[in-house]
## 1
Amino acid sequence: MRFISKHAFERAARLSAALLFGLSLSWGAIAQQAGDSAELDKAYDAAFQELFQDPGNLDKSFRFAELAVQKGNFEAAISALERMLLINPDLPRVRLELGVLYFRIGSYAIARTYLTRVAQTEDAPQEVKDRVQVFLAEIDSRLTRGSLSGSVFIGARYSDNANSGPNSPNVLANGVAATLGDQFTNKSDRNYFISAQVNHSYDLLTQRNEIIESSGSLYASEQDKQKQLDIVFFEGQTGIRGPFVQKLVPGGSFKPYVLGNMVYLQDTWYQFSVGFGANVVLPFTQRLRATINLESKSEHFRNDSERPNASQQSGVEGSLRADATYALTDTQQVGLRASATSQEAKEKFNAFRQFQIGGSFTQLVAIKALESGPASVSANISRSMSHYNAPNPTVDANRKRQDQEWRWSVTSAVPVTPDWTIVTTFQRSTIDSSLPNFENHSAAITFGASRRF
Amino acid sequence: MGSNAKLGLAALSVFLLAHTAGALAQTRSDIGVAAAVNPQAEGTPADGETRTLRVGVNVQSNERIVTAEGGQAQMLFIDESTFTIGPNSDVVLDEFVFDPDTGTGRIALTATKGVFRMVGGKISKRTPVTLKTPTAVIGIRGGIALVNVAANGSTQATFLFGDAMTVGTAGGNLSVTRPGFSVTAASASAPPSNPVQATGDQLSASLGTLEGSAPPADEGGGESAGGGQVPTNQNVAASNIGALGSNSAPNALGAAAPPPPPVGGGQTGEQTGQAAGRQAQQNNTLQSSDNLGFSISRNFVGRITHATRLAGSTSSTLTFGLDRPQGSLDKPFQTSSVSGIVRRKDAGARQGAGVFSANLGSSGFFRAPLAAGTKTGISATSQPFGSGTLTGTSVLSSDNQFILYELTDQADNHRVLAFAGIPTTTFPTTGATFYKARDDFILGSRVVGLPAADGGNLAVTSSDTNAAIYWNTSLSTTAQRPFAAILGGVVGTGASQQMAFSLFVGQVKTDTTGTVIEGNFGGFSYLTGDGASPRLFDGRFESACNCDNTIATETEYDFYGTNAAHFIISSGDLPNTSTLSPFERFRGVETVQKYNPAINFNAATDTLTTRSAHLASNTGVTFNRQLTGFVAGVGASIVQSGGAVTPFTFNSRLVDPNGVKIQTDPNTNKITSTFDMVKSNGGSDVLFVTMGDKDTRFGTSPATSGKSAFFDDETFASTVDCDGTTACTGVATFNGGPAQDGIVTMVTTDDIRGLTGTYANCTYCSWGLIRGEIAPSSPLTFERFTGFWTAGAVQDLAQIPATGTATYGGHMVAFVNNNGAQYIEHGNTSVSVNFAGSGTNGTMTVSNFDGGGFTSTFSAVTATSPGHVFTGSMTGTGALSSVTGSMAGSFFTNAAGQAVAGMGGKVFGYGTVGGNAYRFGGIHLETCTTGACQ
């Protein structure tokens, strides 16, 4: 198998996860390659002693610098190379390597200084200048105070139960067996959609590396037949992320945020929410990473002629969610998630408590024909249980609604170009309910193309 | 040895000595070595002379290093750290302590001017390297920093890598942790500036001072001016440095790009959007019970009827109402669809737009809008009777199980009634259900069974609980589920009063055709100008829904909804005779809906704390017993041909309280009642009626008879409807002989609806209405009468106290015929009794009765068999001063066995008021207030 760089995996996995769940998969730094062996240490120490005894010896200086890089002691290599510049400043290759060394230790400003000097040197070898440009481009992106990234996903979806109609037309109405009107039974349909996510971060240039993180999501879908499901959804949130949990987990971050969203159905605004939350990222190890999210939002539904009682759903939703990912290997990752949601509503029969647990497995697959990175296949399964607070007299005044849902899906993401990825998802959902009105199953297939920016 | 050799040896010795000295000097306090030098750079050890630094020269603790313009040096220390000194710099290596075994130590320097770069080694990983300047103390932990000390001492420090760089002045301290940020300490007293991002120019300038200013002259790998080999680009290219660094892609190297921010909440727009859409759809479906979401198709049965004639006629012989043959005017349906059951909601909620659709087979469909509750102004969109539009009211019960339409055909002004519901399959088996009667739409009447023009349109109260079914059938196999109702009331008082009443007695029975309700009703009314004769209306009601369209095998549904919440009745079948019964006055279709008030009955004390106006809770005391009592009222004898009317009063014929006998049977929920009546003032004929257990029309078996209804000892009703002398023999007799026809109905009541007043109420002492008509064979008259009765448990005389006195209070109600005007009057009664053995006597005062009252004295309670009775005369007072009468009564016992807990009896009389004939007949009923009756 061709070696798949961790960053390619990260990008592919991140893309597919973003499409599925919006999770970011970050692997963290992969352990440095073998260099911490005892023999390397021994050779390094010996090289230092020799250098110390004969510091003007170039061979010994280079030898020491190479061993220092192998050992990961970049500072020592920096010293050795800077020493050369003190003697002979006309060394573009040394400046290039110094720039790369400073890049490696994350000191981008000084790295850029060294590399820029090379770029400005007229007689520097072209291959040196070419490498300089590669690194300068990367440094520029990492030093930008404000960064914008995101993705767009355009596709089509077919579902055999687009309207979430019940399995059977035999339902309950006021506790009496009734037959559901045909227009409300399960209907298959296609829809065409566009989904976009934009992330923006702005470095506040504080010593604690705090940044303002903002994101926005847009989803717009048009149904072929079930026009009542034509939906436009906006969501935005912003907050400040900082290393407030560094003491707990090095590299960890905490972000309080505010959010808002709005839903349009059939070109009429149907619901808006405002709320706040907190997100904690805990990179325990290079392979294990967890995210915890706590959120509360006030949801407001609006009545209209088609949905005259929508406002009965208005209320406050509180949720707690935890996700964890673990890289089994460089090409495999598993994930676990659990969440608890409490939804209040104006009418108690719309209020519920929901518990959900799920897992995922992602496999990267190298495809020789693909130059843009490996493809990925993800399998997801989740189980949720919802308990409603009170019976709905419209359905049955003596029976509360309790739903249990199984949902599983398989997603493949194939990067056909560096920018575009073809995504295919098959999903199946089965809901068992204490009320026949809400028992339903559905299968859907989604096909689309995604582009990151 | 020659001199040359000697010199050479001396030179060698000097050389050796010099190097030996250097070697000795290295070991003495060496902390590092000059690794690179551009002249001029000089070092002055603490206890030594100034020397020019060259590559390889060792440096010592406390050595001062000074560089001239163009002079630069890099010190390589034994802990692997390096300290680079730029031109015009002055620095002292204050302290250097290092333990190579532990890798710990301490480095401290003092700089007065110049540019410096510190790259930390092993010591700085544990202990910050300190660099003291004229304005600040800089600590560098585990990293790399640039420090620029100006000539005036102002210090600028730039953190490039590591854990942290601290900058402290007398004014404060701060820490820098982000690479590329600088802090300036302008003076020793001022706090250091906040960290700012170092500019490229700033960094470039600093780096420039720490690099050689120009390539060395000898670039061929030779030695530099300060010693050491000169590196070349070829050296670098030949080395392996590039392979370990720049040859790799940036992202492949150690520093990973920061991950993109995670999305709070974890759901993409697609997931959330889809979830929102699904939720909206499900809720819309849920709420579609309000708007076209559901159809209920199971067991929905009903009927639609188009009245062929308008209701209304005052003639007692004219039949009116509608014919009820099978055919186009009256259409049952067994299946129907109801699209969009509309849920009843609170005010303000959407009422919905449902549709009711009834499939009438070849006749087509009946379709009309359906809304929650009652909705007026609706029009049917399809009807089977013709082309006219049917407009009117729709009613959907709150449980969505019963639907009613009251419509008027705009083409011919005829009324149409349509109903449908989900038949009751499980009936109650205990307790009673109270019902509220809906107005009779076909007749346009508030009083069910009465035509509108015959009193049905009086503004009488019809919304009270006034009908009940008693479900308890567990006591015996022959027990019936009785039904009784009293509807209507009076409007006004005195001679201007008008009245309309309808009394129902029936049963709920289950046979092969289903569970149905059937029975008789008897109505009467007095309207202005009616004269002496009340209007009487009699009829039979039965299951309204002949829903399989075949008479022979009728499947009848009368009850709809859970626990028989609704039922509907229509007029009964005609008898299989060619002539209509003269008493068959009415036909129609009525509906009755359930009403369930809170009735509080305390069985332990045998007291009803709340009692409906007309029919009480069924949870009273019940047992087999005979109640005896009294009856009195007014009536009119109408000659069948010619119509001459002779008014009369009547009362219980027998002096003892056996003029009225009521035998209760809680095991079968039935009663048998006999009324033995004699006219007074207007004749002396005797009318006898037995009601309850015998009915020629429906068979003689009590099991099939629906002629009585027994709820408890205070709530019952009975009726008789005999047709023909044979059937009437022993049942309805006139002067001992059988009548041709007899229809009589009696029912208990608590008050007279519309007639204010206080009404007595006691256990085992009931009172109520009786109305009826007997047509004797001879003479050929109609003997019509209305009156009141009272009956209770009458003890033998021996049970009455022999001593003591008591007072009683209660009411007197009576029918009055005053100069042809008929009305019901109420008065208050007050009775004083002196129990003196056989001499028990008392006085009764009636007040507020028709502008006057009565006084009465009774004495000598006498024994009867069984029971006892007291009698007295009545003298009118006030406006009734010219009226006299008679009264009689008995004491009634209660459940506790108190023989004189109550008292009641008959009152009747005649006289003149204002010179016009005045007759009254009714009852009085009192309960104990004080004294020996308690």
Note: Chain B has a mean pLDDT of 76.
## 2
Amino acid sequence: MAKEESSKETHWEPQIVAFCCRHCAYAAADLAGGLRLAYPPSVKVFELPCTGRLDVLHVLRTFEDGADGVMVAG
Amino acid sequence: MIVAEQKPLAEIKAMLAGYQKVLVVGCGTCVTVCFAGGEKEVGILASALRMATRLDGNGIDLDETTVQRQCEWEYIDPLADRLEDYDALLSLGCGVGVQTLAERFPSKRVLPGLNTSFMGLPTEQGVWEERCQACGNCILDMTGGICPIARCSKQLLNGPCGGSQNGECEINPEIPCAWQLIWERMSALGLLEQLMEVQPPKDWSTSRDGGPRRIIRDDLRLPEDYRDT
Amino acid sequence: MTDVSTNGYKSGSNLERVLAAGHFAVTGELGPPKSHDADVIRRKTQMLKGYVDAANITDNQTAIVRMSSIAAGAILVQEGLEPVIQMTCRDRNRLAMQSDLLGAAALGIKNVLCLTGDHQSFGNHPTAKNVHDLDSLQLVRMVKDLRDESKFQCGEEIKGGGPGFFIGAAANPFGDPFEWRPYRLAKKVAAGADFIQTQLIYDIPRFKEFMKRVVDMGLHEKVAILAGVGPLKSSGMARYMRDKVPGMIVADEYVDRMVAAVAGIPKEDKAARRDAWRAEGIKICIEQIQQLMEIEGVAGVHIMAIEWEAAIQPIVEGAGLLPRPEVNGR
């Protein structure tokens, strides 16, 4: 956390972890890649077989490991 | 089953103040089934506490473990080898589990993470209701299988008080009047006559009122030389 | 031994004698203060004395701490008004109850009304532990055994004889299950109740239905039933009792009459509205008593003018129940 705080003064970018369903959101991210559309490197995409697989624990652990935001897409 | 609820995070955090390394101990029996202190809740609570204490600037190192039954020596004994490093144990067992740990590991600080609520059942998903008070002298034969000790707000033994209306208890419309239920059940069973007898004062000595209770079964007990506790 | 001292009566209380002589009994309610001010009791005593045969002293009514009913009852005895001490099962176990009953008898108290008690969650100590060692029926039986068997609840003999109380119990004809209510009353009679005071009645047809069942079961011959009445103070109170009080039914007719009583009086004129409401409340109460007197099995009325003891006199007078009978036999 302290690291992000200090860099905030210059240019702070939130670290986002996106939990994406394989069948839609993840496929869309894939397609975006195919179309060479850019998205910020601060977004980390995590593939799930289905967003129903997402657990409270996944979200908590993600935050615990330093993410600033979690996106669930499916 | 025993039904429990997790204590508020702030209360648990306050309890843990001053400890550096804590083992969160879940229980795989009743409190797992009521989603209060099983493996998953241990993970969630430990994670939440790690973050919360880190934000407060005094991050506690929390490890997690869950035993099959916290209320039996044989299930908690294997923890003995792991405990040296920990300042405290945070039990997510019921009150029995907390005490079993404290009794087995007297040199360790054992703290309760749950409030043990009652003995009951899930009446629907996400709803638990009390059914038994462990009075030690069951009268369910006389009341159509509905317990007025556990389910009547005034523990009446001779019928409903004046506050029963529309099947609701006077203290809360969400609570059904136990005696309305008893009346309906006994009526359906054709046993209303049984409710007409005046029930004498209850012998509460078998309940908590008689002091802490103990059951000894000589048929099951090991001979003295073989007892290990 | 009780026969000798009470001349054949169970307790020799004025209430018992009035009922035994076949008079239509009148009892009232006197709420002790939320303080130790004995003068409040004395003042209220003067409002009731001569207009009722005995006055109930509530026992931490609605689970709010007030002066003890027995202590207040002792003041009534000094002042020459007969008390009916109320005793709930909420606050005391069987030891405390029996010891208090012995004390009450020693202070000259002769009537006791045995109640379950309102749940403590309604009162000013909602975090209290409740007792309910006995229920109200078991309390009735215990008081009867003290008197008739000279035995404590445990079975041990009371040396020199037990206290002779005239034993009351409550009945709520409006609670549910409705069909169960006459049977609950029958159980109270079987347990040993000598008189019954009912919950406030604001639905006479339903009370009649209840009484018909009671008379069919012959209960009115075994126990004196005093119908509970109380003057309404305002349309707001009538509505509140109709909509919010558990176990209470208030007929719309009374709510409408209380509303009509202040028709045409501007809202700002609070004194005039209060007077109009109170006059109507007393009028309704008198009419109710007259209707209740016609119902078979009703042996008297119990007037609960909550924090309005001054209403008792005009009600008793208006109902034609004065003067109260003097029955000797002590």
Note: The first helix of chain B runs from residue 9 to 16.
